[in-house]
Design brief:
Blueprint (H helix, E strand, L loop, with lengths): L2 E9 L11 H14 L6 E7 L2 E8 L6 H21 L23 E7 L5 E9 L7 H9 L6 H4 L7 E7 L8 E6 L3 H8 L5 E8 L5 E5 L4 H5 L9 E6 L6 H5 L7 E4 L5 E4 L1 E2 L14 E10 L2 E2 L3 E2 L4 H18 L19 H7 L9
Helix pairs in contact: 1-2
This protein binds 1,3-dihydroxyacetonephosphate and magnesium ion (2 copies).
The site of one magnesium ion has 6 residues, from loops.
Length: 366
């Protein structure tokens, strides 16, 4: 019997702006999961990152299972209704269609899913990021799966030596899912040419070239492409199976010490350094900074162990100081240059109209 991990992430509303959900919203989600979904799901873990709630559910129904998706969607709706009752900001921000109409994908929540035969020791991570985009994981995952400077296993273990296959999505393309499959190491430069642009391209999945098994699934839907207008900002969730034929937990976590500049931050319009934080941390500075939190689990017969809070360690306090300094440094230049995103990326904001209105006919001299 295969085990499935489903991770659903959505912004259900925040206290005082886009900061964090309320305790009652978290309870509304977990109460529904506990009372209504206990027979369908084997186990769940519920947490928040910034203003986004994430439900991690284990079950044996497979990926894209209608009952599981409907159930988790309804749990998120319970949270959104509670947020509306409390008057939270942006209540139900990411759940923009009331009626359930078939597939849950495209209805708002970020969804990452993996279905697999459990290994005897099945270890995995769930990483969630707020105030950024799915492409925020591009650099950490590239380094963890394709660069021996970080992934020592590529040199030290035959199980990893053949490298990995990356599936990369063009997240700006609205008509359909436009993806390309590239192999590391031989396609490394082509991969880098795409992954350098996190606002345009995002890693969707990574597979072992030795076994063909999937390690990584990232939620890559961009809501404004689905909805045709900006609602949420598509803050991503990723599931990463680790160890054995995959990189170790440490190899996946290490690149987060870099704190790469990612798009997002205030009004989804700025660059900030991705800050690793403890689980259930809100945001604060300049509606940010962009943050990532992570939980490590083992799963056996679809039952989860306790979650280990992977960035809750003195090392990450040290890294966070340096990463916060990068963010403070770029904030000094305010709206200018690389501190704010390009006009292309701001195409859904009013700045485009403001600039258009300046395009008056040239003054004719008397
Ligand atoms: P969220 O996408 O996390 O709701 O952030 C919205 C925003 O623009 C904050 O300034
Ligand atoms: Mg929000
Ligand atoms: Mg958010």
């Amino acid at each position: 019997m295969k085990t499935t991990i489903s991770a659903f992430r959505a912004d259900l509303g925040g206290i005082g702006g886009h900061l964090r959900p309320s305790a009652k919203v978290c309870s509304a989600v977990s109460d529904y999961v506990r009372s209504e979904l206990h027979s369908l799901l084997k186990d769940t873990d519920i947490s928040f990152t910034g203003d986004d709630m994430t439900i991690v559910a284990t079950h044996t129904q497979g990926c894209n299972d209608r009952a599981v998706h409907e159930g988790l969607m309804e749990a998120l709706r319970c949270g959104a209704r509670q947020a509306a009752e409390e008057g939270l900001y942006g209540a139900g921000q990411d759940l923009y269609r009331e009626a359930f109409s078939g597939a849950v994908r495209g209805l708002g929540p970020g969804i990452a899913e993996l279905c697999f035969e459990e290994r005897p020791n099945e270890a995995f991570l769930v990483l969630t990021a707020d105030k950024t985009r799915p492409g925020a994981f591009n650099l950490p995952f590239y380094l963890a799966f394709a660069d021996p400077m970080v992934c020592a296993g590529l040199l030290l273990s035959r199980k990893l030596h053949q490298g990995f296959r990356f599936v990369i999505m063009d997240v700006a393309y609205a008509a359909h899912d436009r993806v390309v499959s590239l192999e590391a190491p031989q396609d490394l430069y082509d991969m880098a040419a795409l992954l350098r642009s996190p606002e345009r391209f995002a890693i969707e999945a990574i597979f072992s070239r030795t076994t063909g098994d999937q390690s990584v699934a990232v939620s890559t839907a961009r809501l404004h492409n689905v909805a045709g207008f900006v609602t949420g900002r598509d803050d991503p969730v990723a599931i990463v199976r680790v160890q054995d034929h995959f990189p170790s937990t440490g190899e996946v976590l290490a690149p987060f010490a870099i704190g790469p500049f990612v798009p997002g931050f205030l009004r989804g319009s700025h660059a900030g350094a991705l800050l690793p934080v403890r689980r259930n941390t809100g945001v604060s500075f300049f509606d940010g900074p962009p943050i990532v939190s992570g939980a490590a689990f083992c799963v056996k017969q679809a039952r989860l162990t306790d979650a280990v809070d992977v960035f809750d360690h003195p090392f990450w306090d040290h890294a966070a100081q340096q990463i916060a300094e990068k963010t403070v440094s770029i904030r000094h230049q305010g709206f200018f240059g690389n501190a704010m995103l390009t006009l292309d990326e701001l195409s859904q904001s009013d700045i485009i109209n403001i600039i258009r209105e300046l395009d008056r006919p040239a003054r004719i001299p008397l």
